[in-house]
Structures are given as C-alpha cells and as structure tokens.
Design a protein that fits this description.
The chain is α/β, with parallel strands linked by helices. It has 7 helices and 20 strands.
C-alpha cells in the first residue's frame, strides 16, 4: 500500500501542540464509564413480488430469517458474538444500549496489536489506507471539498491531535482549527464547555474523523459532541451540525428500535443535507438507520483482487425489516413490507479493516464495524457536489456495485458506491 513519506518532525510537532492545547482546555473534565468495474443491477424485482416479498420470502425476510436477524441470532447478535465483541474483534462500546440511548459501532481487530508510535512509517501501518479506500470506491478525491459533520457522544480531548497524526502519516493536507479546516463544537454549537470525556466514544470519534479525511482529503470537518449517548442529545447535535453548514452529517451509532422512534426523525430531516447512519453490528434493524431520512450504511468485507477489489457481505452488519417504520415508496426491490434498514454498504469487517490512529485505543489499530461506512459515505456525498438522499440512490442502482448477487440485498442494500453519481 504505497503512501507519501511521513513528515515525522512536522507530525510530532503538530500533534504535540494540538494535544497540549486540547488537554489544557479540558482540564478538570470528568470521565464517563484499483479499478472496480461498475455493474448494472438487475431490473427492479417487482414482477413476481407480493406485498410480503418475493416467492419464498416472508414479510420479515428470507426463509428462516426474522425481523431480528438470521437463524441462530439473539438479542446480542450472531452466533459467536458477545456483548463485548465479535470473533477476532472487540467493540469499543460494549453491550446493547438501553432504551432511548445509543452505542458506538466501532469494532477493533485483535489480529494486530496497537502500535503506539505516532511516527510509524506508513508502509508498516496495518489496515486499509486512504489510497485503498479511494481506489475501492472510485472516489474523486481531486474534487473540491465541502463540509462534513461528524456527530458522536461525549468528548475526545485528543480528537484534533489524533487527526493530525493520521493525516500526516498518509500525506493528507493538514486539517486543524488553526487553518480553519477543523471545528469542534458542543451540543449547542459553541466552542468549549465540552461534555465529559469517554474513552470508548473517543475511539469512535477518531475513526470517524479519519474516514472523512480518507474519502475527502479537501473537505472541512465539523465534530459535534453530544452531552451524552441519549438519542435526544445526539439528535440535538445533528441539528447543530446541520446549522453549522454541513452538507452531510455522519452518525456512527445505533439504538435498539422502539415504538415511538419516528418522533426522533425531526432531527434527521434537514432538506439539502445528506444524513448517513451506521446500520449497527448486531445483525438486526436499528435506529436511526431505519429512519426514512437517512442513508443507512451496512457492512462488507473488502479485499484486493489483482488490480481491483472484491467485496462480500459482512454477516454481523445490522440489517432486517424495521419493526416500526413503514416502507418508503422509493425503497423498491426489498424483501420487507416495512423499511429495510440498509441502503448501501462499505467496508466494516475488522478482519479486513482500516488503519486508524487513536491515543485512547493505544495508537495505530485496525478498525471495522459499520462505523467505518457512515463517515465514508457522508464524505462521498459531499464529493458529489450536490448531496441528495436515499431516494436518489434507489433511482440509480447502476451507480452501486451489487455485493453477493444482483439487485437489492438485505445486508448490503444496493451495494457499495462506485464513484459518487448515485449520491
């Protein structure tokens, strides 16, 4: 994976300055717990489809599948998954969220121990690099960037410092508060008076900022930190992000569905602003991914195949038929009578994951989870120059590479973006 040489001295100076500034500002804060060919999809699958789905399918999905997932799944996920992680990976935010609250969706691979050295040579950093992601998804990174917002819970006092390490390691232009590229806001939109720090969510924040950087190196970034992981706080932070001028807002968190969840939709309905949400890593439909106003990003395993790339569905990706949200008119070809909770997909498998730098995680790590896809796709929306929403994508299925089979798939939706013409 070729990368630009690391400017070690500059990297360390920038990171040190930012880290010192960040720590001083939060003193006294508490701590809470190559080329891929674009394939056309098959015609819309409605000819022999009934109100419940295709022949052999039910209202909830494929034979043997239920609204909560696939055979053998439980409330915590698929066989082999626990509250704290997946086979070969650990969740930063362990456990299932309580009603009305959310959990982050980053999964950290156990196949590679953290590398503490921020000046590690790029060729020795494990995981997929920005150039890999740009190649796999055909991203026009030379395009002028707009503004992408990242919404997460709690404070990461080293967010800007970790971002500086990542961007300089891979030869990306500096994005800092000093040059106006990076802004950090609290839930109300102010600089300062940030919420309590939280190490798990800090790992999520680092990953999200880095994935925006990887997909759109010229984009400005706004980080909005919610007071807590309550959906009300996260929703108000989404409103703040939209008001801050973002063209797309990334939401890498999930909540278990509940009967009145659509009351939260007001926070995700901002005309002209694209909203992305991770589909979750528990194998069942979640919110806000199930909202009709967001583009829900499911997960894949991404691997090199000669000069190109190959993708397969990642079985732990959240998916399924929403228990409470009706099927939007624009969502065609799905197996659900209600909202199918995945629209598109991107890399999520931590075993084929991305390089990420997080001080809280111990340095350089390989990360996955559907946390990766939400900021990647949000940045791709901004690269399109005119961000739309999920209905636009369903009208242009040819702009996505089907994963596993032609047509809409429950785990990966329309497939992965091939360029930005479908966004």
């Amino acid at each position: 994976m070729p990368s630009a040489p690391i400017r070690v001295a500059s990297l360390l100076r920038v990171a040190a300055v930012v880290a010192a500034t960040s720590l001083a500002a939060c003193a006294g804060a508490g701590t809470t717990p190559a080329t891929v060919a674009t394939q056309s999809t098959a015609p819309d699958r409605t000819t022999s489809e009934s109100a419940t789905g295709l022949p052999g399918e039910s209202a909830t999905g494929l034979p043997g599948e239920s609204a909560t997932g696939l055979p053998g799944e439980s409330a915590t996920g698929l066989p082999g998954e626990s509250a704290t992680g997946l086979p070969g990976a650990n969740f930063a935010c362990g456990g299932v969220p309580t009603p009305g609250s959310a959990q982050c969706t980053v999964a950290i691979s156990l196949s590679s121990a953290p590398i503490a050295n921020p000046a590690q040579p790029a060729q020795l950093i494990p995981g997929l690099h920005p150039a890999d992601l740009q190649s796999a998804y055909g991203l026009p990174v030379v395009a002028a960037g707009g503004t992408v917002a990242v919404v997460d819970a709690y404070d990461d006092p080293l967010a800007e410092a970790d971002l500086a390490v990542y961007r300089l390691a891979f030869g990306l232009p500096l994005c800092s508060s000093l040059n106006g590229c990076f802004r950090k806001l609290n839930e109300t939109g102010a600089k300062g008076n940030y919420p309590a720090s939280n190490s798990a969510w800090a790992e999520e924040i680092a990953l999200d900022l880095e994935m925006v950087s990887a997909a759109c190196p010229k984009c400005k970034i706004v980080l909005v930190e919610a007071n807590s992981a309550l959906l009300d706080d996260l929703g108000r932070s989404v409103d703040t992000a939209a008001a801050a001028g973002a063209q797309a807002v990334s939401n890498s968190y999930y909540s278990v569905e509940w009967s009145t969840e659509t009351a939260e939709d007001v926070h995700y309905r901002h005309p002209g602003v694209a909203m992305t949400a991770s589909s979750g890593d528990r194998g069942y439909a979640t919110y806000p991914a199930a909202s009709q106003y967001v583009t829900s990003v499911g997960g894949s395993s991404l691997r090199r195949a000669g000069s190109g790339w190959t993708e397969a569905a990642w079985q732990y990706s959240g998916h399924g038929c929403s228990a409470y949200v009706g099927r939007p008119a624009w969502q065609r070809g799905t197996i659900c009578r209600t909202r199918s909770a995945v629209d598109v997909a991107a890399i999520a498998d931590p075993q084929t994951g991305v390089a990420s730098y997080s001080t809280q995680a111990g340095g350089w790590i390989v990360a996955g989870g559907t946390s990766v896809g939400a900021p990647l796709v949000a940045a791709a929306y901004v690269l399109s120059g005119s961000p739309q929403g999920p209905s636009y994508s369903y009208a242009r299925p040819y702009a996505f590479r089907p994963i596993g089979a032609a047509g809409y798939q429950p785990i990966t939706g329309l497939g992965s973006p091939q360029g930005v013409m479908g966004l």
